[in-house]
Every structure is written in C-alpha cells, then in structure tokens.
C-alpha cells in the first residue's frame, strides 16, 4: 500500500507536471531549432513571440466568452487558438520582411541577426505590455479537472491522490498532434523536404531550384504556429504573465541546445529532459521517502535538493554540462 | 569633429532639462548616465574589441552591487558568532567538492568508473555542503531579522568596494568564459543569460548574504550627507554668499560630487582603454576580431585572448554596478530587470558606436537621457493623441496608463533602426 502511495505521489507531483511542462518546452524549443536550422540564428524574440500569440488568443477568448460561445468541458481558448496563430503568422512575416530579410540579402554574420532579434524582442515586449498590461491574466474555463483528488481517493482508497488537470491532458494531446503534423510535413511533403534540404546544405538546395524565400516563409509560418500553441498551453496550465514568457527563453534555449540545435527530434528530447530534471530537483521528496523508508527512518527535512527559486539553475547546469562534454548536443546538431 | 559636436549636443540637452525641469533631475540623469556609459564601455570591450556577445550584463552589475554590501556595510558580530565560520566552511567544502570532481575527471583513465567516481564525489560533496550550510544559515538569519539577519560586510570605505565589485564580476565571468568560449557565439549568449538569472536568484534568496528581497539600505557614501552640509555653518555661509538656498544647494553639491567621482572613473577607464588599444595587445585584439583564422595561424591563442577580454569587460560592468549601488545607497535585488540592465546597455553600445570607446560613452549618456525623458515626452504625446477622445472612456484610460510601456517599444525601434541604417553607430570606431 505504501509503495502504491509513493508511486501515486511521484506521478502526481513530478511525472504529470513535468510531462506537460516538458511538452510546452518542447514546442518552444522546436520553434527555436527550426529558425536555427533554416535561418541560422538564435531567435531571442521567441519568448515574446509566444507571449504575443498567447495574448491574441486570450483577447479572442474573452470575446468568445462574452458572446456566449463555449466548448463545454474544454477551454474556449482552443477555439480562439487559430485566430492567435493567424495573427502571429502575420506578425512574424512582417518582422521578417521589415527586419531580417535585409540582413539575409546582405549575408550578415549570425550575431547581427541575433542583435536584430533582440530589437524585435524589445518591440514585441512593448506591444504586449502596451495592449494587455503586465499583470496575470486568467483565461481558462471549462472543466478544471479530468480526475480530481476526491474521485481518485474514493475510487482507489489510497492516501495520496492523483490529480489530472484538463490543461495538462490537453497540453500532452495538443503537443502530440502538433509534433506528428510537423514531422509528417517535414518528411512527407515537397515543401517539408525542400526545407530539410535547405537546412542541410544551402548551396546544393539553391542549385536544385529551391526558392529560398519560400522556404523561409514556410518556416516562419510553422514557427509562429508552434510558438502560439506553446504560449497558449503554458498560459492555460500556469497563467499568462508577459514577463514569465521572457524568462522561459532560458529553459527553451537550453532544451534546444541540449538536444542539438537544428535537430527537431533533439528539441523534443531536450524539452522533456530539462522539464523532468527541473521539477525533480526542486520537488521536496520527503513525502515519497516517508512512504518508502522503513519505520523510524523517515527523513526529517524536506529532502529538497534546491529551492524552487533556483529552477533556472537546473537548466543552466544541464546546459553547461552538455557544452563541456558534447557541444553539439545529445543528438547530432549543427554547428556553424 | 563629429565627436565634440555630439557631446556638446548632449550637454545642451542636459542644460535644457536643468533649466526647464530642475537641476536635481538633470544631475540625476548625468550621474546615472555616467554609470551607464561605464557599463557600455564594458560591453563595448567585449563586443567591439572581440565580437563576444554577452547578454548577462545584469548579473555582473548586480555582483558589483553585492561587492558594495560585502565591503562597506558594518559586520554583524552576533551573526558571525552564530554561524559565520560554519557558512565559510560549507562554501569551502562546496568549492572543494567541485575541485575534487574536476581533478578526478582529469586524473582517472577513461571509462564508466571515471563517470561514477565523479558522480560520487559530487553527491557526497553536495550532502556535506548542505549538512554544514543549512543550520548555519538558519542561525544567521535568526539574528535580529528585522534589522540585520545577515553577516554584514567588512566596514571598509565604500570606494574600496568598487574594485572589489569588479573582481566579483570577473570571477563569475571566468566561470562562464571557461565553459562557453571557444564554442559558437550563441552559446556564450545563452550561458551569460543563464548566469545572470542565477546571480539574481542568489541575491534574492540568500538572506544570510545580502538580506535578499528585504534589501540592504544605508550603504555608506563616499561623499558628505546633505543633512550634515545643511548643519555646517561654513557651508550655509558659503551658499548664502552665492545666493543659493542651502537646502537645495546641499543636494546639488552632493550630486555634483558624485558626478565628479564618476566622471573621473570614466575618463581614467577610457584613457586606459585607448592606451591598450594602441599597444601591441590592442593590435592583436583587432587582428583577432577582424580575422580569427588568420590570427590563429599567426600563433595567437584566440580562445585565451577572448577569455581575457571577456573577464576584463565583465569586471568593468561590475565596477559600474558597485558605483550604481553606492549612488542609490541601497542594494535592491528585486530591481534588477534584464530589459533595463542588459538589453538597454546593448542599445547604448550599438547606437553609440561599437568598437569606439568615446562612442559607447556617448551612447550610454544619450540613451539613458532618452530612457528617462521618454516618460514625459511619451506622456505629452499620448495626451495629444487622446485629446479628442471623451473623458473617462475606456480606451483613453488604457492608453494613458500604458505610456510607460511605450519606451520599450521606442528603444527596440531605435536599436533596429540604428542597426540597419547606421550599423557603425554615432561615433564609429576605427
């Protein structure tokens, strides 16, 4: 019985939150890694692109809620998501046209692109704060739980409860669909193949008649869709606050680098690796060990390796270790 | 000729603010502008001389501020008695464990055993560290938490803290540079972004070190206090002879004294850097920046030179951070925002002129000026835009409330425009 309780506690406090957080990070890291693979720079505006997409979705959600439209048990934000994606696609295509295309034509050094993306980040940050403000915004509705604490306890008779929030299940399902679509697109369609060819060898791709501008436009569109989805899922799961999206930049980049920049499969693996280590390290294991330890051996302290405020240190530490021992990432990434 | 003209325009802008708003505001802008100029100099060393992309300026600046607290605040005797030695021992054990792990990695033959040994050393070191560290911290933080609750500093003059702040920043830079330099440029960027977040998290949470978010206030000053000046008969006499109000005069004099100190530091730094750039070392740095492969072929150790300049530049940022904490008279870890302390400094460098010391100094002053003045300017503009709207309408209220966010947008646009149309900045480097 104690063993079962321990397993349920680990599932509830570590596995489920980490899995949904990992899926959000993976979606974010996929965007970063695609930009890196095709446009060949680290896009520092990615966190704020996520915030922008989430913001548009929130505004549309509020509009739908006011109009009385709802999805029943599912959050209304799902209906608003396509609008958010469309707006974000427009935004990134506009920034590409106004900012990045010029440097692409000039064949500028990657670091110039990075600085330009910093400027874009500033502007987006200003726009998001200007429109929606800096405060927490709550926009989730519908059924909050799929399995609530009480139903689980009465069902199983255990002390520990397994809680599954709708947002968490939704995150995993949506992320799964998005990733499946992305890989189908990259591996099966003509455009996807040309994108991969362009990423592997730019000159050869140009010689075989691939239109680079078209590849770039498709990349931005996919990245916008991924970023908005990641932003909305994160907002549904936690809450929407513009500054947290900026702070997500570090774990997202860490995921992309750990998996190997430019490698989509690596980005997914990296996202889950970072999420599981982050939550595993800041979780207080006292309860779980209390169930497992023999009578009288229960730990006194919280058995928390690091306090929650240091969760960034975890992504940073993993990043440093990977940079020291395998600079191209766990999966083979690019290095320019 | 361009330099003196631009600096003259800058001075004219300051005088304009002094005459139209108040001289106190103008001098505040000058003081923070001088500090920003020094931060911009530090970033320019890394970016302009070596092409290193550091976006962790905030962390190095905050470490400088910590230096101020550690050097100049009076020590808390009780806290030291309660757990000072134990905390130091714990930190030594932690550092020793990392050192031992590195040594194990170097000395042992390759294989699974090596990895396992390193892991054992690290885990044992961590457990021992926590065993020593946790009770000591609890004891220190229990000593009069409302007033102190931390170890305090050494009680030395605050000027001593400035180079110490630089040293702390240099130490952090060494750790980052050692791991991330020599790899792709983006990796250094991410690593610096990470270390900055961690430094701020440490400052916010380690109450035994700097009281965390409870802030350390009353950091000693290198210049006299206004109240002492007002009570000194000779000062009041002096002010009245010139026809000034002693209360207003005292605050102006204090600010001028700060400005003099900061200006001296800035000029010394620029002089040192100009000298360094003219020396063989400077030629080598330029050669490395312009063509790394060629410099490497000539037998220059590019990674080592990069590490050197990265540490120097970060130390300058740390120095500026210590000066800023001295000016504020307090360390408030919650106030460090990446947009303000990292990205704004980058705007200064790009707009001022990367690779040019005078250019970055000018950029620092000028961007800081507009950052401060953007608020009144933006408000005036927004008043004009919303003038035709009905009073009390939702949109008008929202627009007026959001004026403060406009300056982020404006700074982003300035950066993008400068990068595109004047990529070499106002005062281009050679």
Largest sheet of chain A: 2 strands, antiparallel
* Structural class by sheet pairing and helices of chain A: mainly alpha
Note the run of SSEs of chain B as H and E: HHHHHHHHEHHHHHHEHHHH
Classify the helix fraction of chain A into a percent range: over 70%
Taken from the alpha-carbon principal axes, the silhouette of chain B is globular
Terminal residue distance of chain A: 54 Å
Give the amount of beta strand of chain A, in percent.
under 5%
Number of separate structural domains of chain A:
1
Spans of chain A of at least 5 consecutive residues whose pLDDT stays below 50 are none
The fraction of residues assigned to DSSP E strands of chain B is under 5%
Broad shape of chain A: globular
Give the CATH architecture of the largest domain in chain B.
Orthogonal Bundle
Whole-number total of structural domains of chain B: 2
Number of helices of chain B: 18
Biggest sheet: strand arrangement of chain A: 1-2
**Radius of gyration of chain A (Å):** 21 Å
CATH topology of the largest domain in chain B: ABC transporter involved in vitamin B12 uptake, BtuC
Average pLDDT metric of chain B: 89
Walkthrough of the structure:
The complex is a heterodimer of chains A (336) and B (430). Chain A is an all-alpha fold. Chain A has one domain: ABC transporter involved in vitamin B12 uptake, BtuC (Orthogonal Bundle). In chain A, strands 1-2 form a two-stranded antiparallel sheet. Chain B is mainly alpha-helical and 430 residues long. Chain B has two domains: 344 residues, Orthogonal Bundle (ABC transporter involved in vitamin B12 uptake, BtuC); 76 residues. Chain B is built from 18 helices and two strands. In chain B, strands 1-2 form a two-stranded antiparallel ribbon. Chain B is globular and about 75 Å long. At the A-B interface, α4, α11 and α14 of A face α7, α15 and α18 of B.
């Amino acid at each position: 019985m104690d063993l079962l309780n321990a397993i349920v506690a680990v599932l509830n406090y570590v596995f489920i939150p980490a899995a949904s957080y990992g899926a959000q990070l993976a979606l974010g890291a996929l965007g970063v890694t695609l930009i890196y693979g095709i446009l060949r720079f680290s896009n520092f505006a990615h966190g704020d692109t996520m915030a922008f997409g989430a913001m548009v979705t929130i505004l549309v959600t509020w509009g739908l809620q006011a109009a009385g439209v709802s999805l029943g048990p599912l959050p209304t934000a799902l209906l608003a998501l396509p609008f958010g994606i469309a707006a974000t696609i427009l935004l990134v295509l506009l920034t590409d046209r106004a900012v990045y295309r010029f440097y692409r034509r000039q064949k500028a050094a990657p670091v110039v692109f990075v600085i330009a993306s910093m400027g874009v980040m500033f502007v987006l940050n200003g726009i998001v704060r200007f429109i929606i403000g800096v405060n927490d915004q709550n926009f989730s509705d519908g059924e909050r739980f799929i399995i609530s604490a009480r139903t689980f306890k009465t069902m199983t008779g255990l002390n520990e409860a397994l809680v599954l929030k709708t947002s968490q299940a939704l995150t995993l399902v949506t992320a799964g669909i998005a990733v499946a679509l992305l890989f189908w697109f990259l591996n099966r369609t003509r455009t996807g193949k040309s994108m991969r060819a362009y990423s592997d060898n730019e000159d050869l791709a140009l010689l075989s008649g691939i239109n680079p501008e078209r590849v770039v436009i498709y990349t931005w569109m996919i990245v916008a869709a991924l970023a908005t989805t990641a932003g909305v899922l994160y907002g549904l799961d936690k809450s929407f606050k513009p500054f947290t999206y900026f702070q997500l930049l570090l774990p997202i980049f860490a995921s992309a680098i750990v998996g190997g920049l430019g490698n989509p499969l690596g980005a997914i693996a990296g996202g889950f690796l970072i999420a599981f280590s982050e939550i595993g390290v800041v979780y207080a294991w006292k309860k779980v060990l209390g169930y497992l330890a023999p009578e009288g051996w229960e730990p006194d302290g919280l058995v928390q390796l690091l306090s929650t405020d240091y969760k960034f240190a975890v992504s940073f530490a993993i990043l440093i270790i990977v940079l020291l021992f395998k600079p191209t990432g766990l999966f083979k990434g690019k290095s320019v | 000729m361009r330099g003196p003209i631009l600096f003259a325009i800058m001075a004219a802008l300051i005088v304009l603010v002094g005459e139209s708003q108040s001289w106190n505001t103008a001098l505040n802008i000058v003081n923070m502008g001088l500090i920003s100029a020094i931060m911009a100099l530090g970033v320019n060393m890394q970016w302009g001389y070596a092409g290193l992309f550091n976006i962790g300026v905030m962390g190095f600046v905050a470490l400088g501020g910590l230096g101020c607290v550690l050097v100049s605040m009076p020590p808390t005797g009780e806290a030291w008695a309660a757990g000072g030695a134990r905390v130091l021992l714990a930190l030594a054990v932690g550092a020793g464990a990392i050192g031992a792990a590195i040594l194990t990695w170097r000395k042992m033959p390759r294989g699974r055993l090596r990895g396992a040994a390193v892991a054992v050393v690290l885990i044992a070191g961590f457990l021992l560290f926590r065993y020593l560290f946790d009770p000591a911290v609890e004891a220190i933080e229990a000593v009069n938490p409302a007033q102190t609750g931390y170890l305090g500093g050494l009680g030395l003059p605050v000027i001593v803290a400035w180079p110490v702040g630089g040293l702390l920043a240099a130490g952090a830079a060494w750790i980052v540079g050692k791991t991330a330099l020599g790899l792709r440029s983006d990796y250094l960027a991410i690593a610096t972004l990470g270390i900055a977040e961690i430094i701020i998290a440490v400052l916010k949470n380690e109450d035994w070190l700097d009281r965390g978010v409870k802030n350390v206030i009353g950091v000693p000053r290198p210049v006299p206090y206004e109240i002492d000046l007002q009570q000194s008969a000779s000062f009041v006499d002096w002010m009245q002879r010139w026809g000034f109000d002693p209360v207003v005069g005292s605050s102006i004099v204090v600010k001028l004294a700060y400005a003099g100190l900061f200006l001296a530091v800035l000029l010394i730094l620029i002089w040192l850097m100009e000298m360094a750039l003219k020396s063989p070392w400077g030629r080598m740095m330029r050669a490395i920046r312009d063509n790394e492969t060629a410099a490497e072929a000539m037998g220059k150790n590019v990674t080592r030179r990069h590490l050197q300049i990265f540490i120097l530049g970060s130390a300058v940022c740390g120095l500026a951070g210590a000066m800023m904490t001295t000016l504020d008279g307090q360390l408030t870890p919650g106030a460090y925002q990446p947009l303000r302390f990292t990205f704004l400094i980058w705007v200064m460098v790009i707009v001022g002129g990367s690779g040019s010391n005078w250019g970055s100094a000018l950029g620092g002053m000028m961007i800081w000026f507009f950052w401060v003045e953007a608020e009144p300017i933006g408000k005036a503009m927004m008043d004009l835009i919303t003038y035709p709207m009905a009073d009390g309408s939702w949109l008008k209220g929202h627009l007026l409330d959001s004026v403060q966010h406009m300056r982020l947008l404006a700074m982003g646009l300035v950066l993008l425009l400068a990068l595109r149309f004047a990529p070499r900045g106002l005062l281009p480097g050679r």
